């Protein structure tokens, strides 16, 4: 579990630095990722790269892991403290959410939002325009 925790911490740190390549090298080529700010999913590193670049043009998210729990099915549930701001610095969300990771051969192969509603935008990104 220590290696998994370190891998996930590295992924969060790379995301928070906007180091797309650093985060993507910790993922499988066919990784499945939720589009938390848009709803739905993307598959593959190129789609994640494009999605994150769109997201960062509208929002300034920061996500810090608080607790990681490995489940019997091999998934890892990560409780995170998430702060989402507008590009103007307005606070849009400050709270905790859960991310559920699946790993394959030591790399992230999927992430889901823990609220079970990954097809809709996360509450962390719902805001009024």
UniProtKB/TrEMBL annotation:
Which InterPro entries does the protein's record reference? NTF2-like_dom_sf (IPR032710), SnoaL-like (IPR037401)
Q: Where are the bilayer-spanning segments?
A: none
GO-annotated molecular function: isomerase activity
Question: Domain of life here?
Answer: Bacteria
What are the record keywords, sorted? Isomerase
Location of the SnoaL-like domain = 9-110
User: Which organism was this protein described from?
Assistant: Terriglobus roseus
Q: State the name under which the record lists this protein.
A: Ketosteroid isomerase-related protein
């Amino acid at each position: 579990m220590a290696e998994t925790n370190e891998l996930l911490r590295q992924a969060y740190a790379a995301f928070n630095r906007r180091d797309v390549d650093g985060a993507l090298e910790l993922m499988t080529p066919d990784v499945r990722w939720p589009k938390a700010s848009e709803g739905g999913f993307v598959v593959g590193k190129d789609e994640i790269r494009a999605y994150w670049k769109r997201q960062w043009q509208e929002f300034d998210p920061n996500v810090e892991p608080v607790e990681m729990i490995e489940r019997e099915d091999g998934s890892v549930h990560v409780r995170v403290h998430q702060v989402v701001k507008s590009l103007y610095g307005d606070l849009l969300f400050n709270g905790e959410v859960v991310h559920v990771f699946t790993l394959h051969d030591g790399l992230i192969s999927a992430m889901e939002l823990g609220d079970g509603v990954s097809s809709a935008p996360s509450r962390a990104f719902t805001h009024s325009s």
